[in-house]
Structure formats: structure tokens, C-alpha cells
Design a protein that fits this description.
heterodimer, A: alpha/beta, Rossmann fold, 5 helices, 11 strands, globular, B: alpha+beta, Mth169, Chain: A, 2 helices
């Protein structure tokens, strides 16, 4: 599958995300924030970083970039979209995902290897995992606290839209230890930790993040 | 020139780590008696002509779409009249 990775001014992890997409057996296509079309890709990754310098609110300016109009449109038609870290923030600002990400409750930047439990292995981004699988990937964020009102949180839990949860201590104050969620349809997934930094033995926290990038193929041939 | 001010504040139920940090710093500097601090944002919008109802309606739209995130923030709009320069 062709997977587009959007580079915004201030994106940091776009090249790692491209690499992870290739490691996952897919073709990586570089997209630019000013693009008015998605270049025929089958899926999109919004990478981590500090797009537009995190001015105003994280993701608030990116949400109105030309390429996001295309992404929002394609997501509505069912295209798989994965937002990692800043990408997750952009998806929330775009209202493709409910809730918001706020500054870590302990006010420090968190950077560590993080254990997660995959709570929903039925999304196009998590189907390589077994439901309940415990994985370790990298976590690095300053504004990673996931918040939503109680009703929204109950709905997310009830509908199986919690995709991943933190294990071994909550690193940022996210409500109900939520590390990642999906939209109601399941095609749009936001994740605060970084699976793209855990795809090869040479660097990072191992290879347990690779499943996010092999899942597309699993889904396509299912 | 009339100025429209949009104040954006984190909703009361949303944790405000920055406000907490400021609150924590005050007693260390010898300032006593502050029981809570919430930190928000203030936007000052300058307009050329008169601030009509239509302009204000548009400011509310700006506040809802860009200046605030309604999931976590409240906003308030008010008009500031220019202060006449002292002679």
C-alpha cells in the first residue's frame, strides 16, 4: 500500500515514520502541508514534532493547512489515518478524534521507554497485534495528557475506541491511562507514544512498534 | 481605533499545569494569600471601521474555530474603547 507521511513546518519524526512505513512492507510517499491532493495514497500518517512551533495550541494551526482539508475528507470516506504525538494533537484539533491533549500534569517533558497494552486490535493500524498484547515503544511528549469529558470517555471505553493504554505508570496525566484512541469507524487512530521509533534492533526500544506499520498489509489482505 | 478582545481560559474542570506552576512560585517569592491561579490567553483584534454586530458575530466564529478549543477552553469577547490621549 502507498502510505503518505505529511511533513508540516516543524515536523520532526516524518523521516522515521517514512522508514517505519517501509519496514512495515509499504511504500512511503512524502506529502507536504501545502499539498492540495494526497497523491493517490491509500493511507496517511501524521508524524510527531512541533508543527508550526506549537503556536496557539499544539496542532491548532496545522489543522487548517491545505493538506489537512484533504486528509479530513479522505478520513471521512474511510481512509486509514494514524496520528502520532503531534499528529494525534492535530487529529483532535481537526475534530477527527474526540477530546484534546493538554500539558503533562507533572509539567516536565516525558522521554522514556513506555509499556502499552493494545486494547483494540481491530483497527487498520493495530490488526497485527493480539488484543491485550503488551508492547514497549518510545514515549516523548510535553503535552500528552489526554482529556475529554466523562461522557466521552465512557463512550470511548464502551465502543472499544480506546486503542492503547499506558502500563507501568501514567506518564502524562492522561485520563483513564489512555495512550491512543480511534474514531467511531476505527479508521482514524491517534497515539501519543511513538511506535515508529521502535522498529529495528539498532536503535530505540526494540521492534514492538512495527506492528502499527505491518497492520495495513494484514488489513488489506484480510 | 476600536479593539475587540477575546479572553480564552481553560475550562474550570480542565487541569491547568501552567497556572499551578505560577501558583507554586508566588509563595516562594513572598507573595501570600493567593488560593488559585488559572492561566489563559488574551487576543487583541484591531479593526479599521466600526465594530458592528456583524463584526462581533464574526469574532465569535474566530474564537470558536481558531482562537479557542471548545473541548478544553471557554472564551469571552468584549470591545475596548480607545482611551483619549491626555492633553
Amino acid at each position: 500500500m502507498k502510505v503518505g507521511i505529511v511533513t508540516f513546518p516543524g515536523s520532526l519524526d516524518d523521516v522515521d515514520a517514512q522508514r517505519a512505513v517501509r519496514f512495515g512492507g509499504n511504500e512511503a510517499v512524502a506529502l507536504w502541508h501545502g499539498d492540495h491532493d494526497l497523491g493517490g495514497v491509500d493511507a496517511v500518517v501524521l508524524p510527531g514534532g512541533f508543527s508550526y512551533g506549537d503556536y496557539l495550541r499544539c496542532g491548532a494551526i496545522s489543522r487548517f493547512s491545505p493538506v489537512m482539508a484533504e486528509v479530513i475528507d479522505a478520513a471521512g470516506r474511510g481512509m486509514p489515518v494514524l496520528g502520532i504525538c503531534n499528529g494525534f494533537q492535530i487529529l483532535c484539533e481537526s475534530h477527527l478524534l474526540p477530546g484534546a491533549l493538554i500539558r503533562n500534569d507533572h509539567r516536565k517533558f516525558a522521554c522514556r521507554d513506555q509499556r502499552l497494552r493494545i486494547e483494540n486490535a481491530r483497527t487498520p493500524w493495530t490488526s497485527s497485534y493480539d488484543e491485550g498484547a503488551e508492547i514497549t515503544v518510545v514515549l516523548k511528549n510535553g503535552e500528552g495528557g489526554f482529556v475529554a469529558d466523562a461522557e466521552t470517555l465512557d463512550r470511548l471505553e464502551g465502543e472499544g475506541q480506546v486503542v492503547a493504554r499506558y502500563l507501568g505508570g501514567n506518564p502524562n496525566g492522561s485520563l483513564r491511562d489512555i495512550a491512543g484512541i480511534s474514531n467511531a469507524a476505527g479508521n482514524v487512530v491517534g497515539l501519543m507514544p511513538h511506535p515508529e521509533h521502535a522498529v529495528e534492533e539498532l536503535t530505540g526500544a526494540g521492534t514492538q512498534g512495527l506492528g502499527f506499520f505491518t497492520s495495513l498489509a494484514v488489513t488489506a489482505f484480510a | 481605533m476600536p479593539r475587540v478582545v477575546v479572553d480564552v481560559m481553560p475550562k474550570p474542570e480542565i487541569l491547568d499545569p501552567q497556572g499551578k506552576a505560577v501558583h507554586g512560585a508566588l509563595p516562594r517569592l513572598g507573595f501570600q494569600g493567593v488560593t488559585d491561579v488559572r492561566q489563559g490567553k488574551r487576543f487583541e483584534l484591531e479593526f479599521d471601521g466600526e465594530v458592528t454586530e456583524a463584526v462581533l458575530a464574526e469574532v465569535h466564529q474566530m474564537a470558536e474555530t481558531l482562537l479557542s478549543n471548545p473541548v478544553i477552553e471557554n472564551y469571552a469577547v468584549h470591545v475596548e474603547q480607545p482611551v483619549e490621549a491626555q492633553a
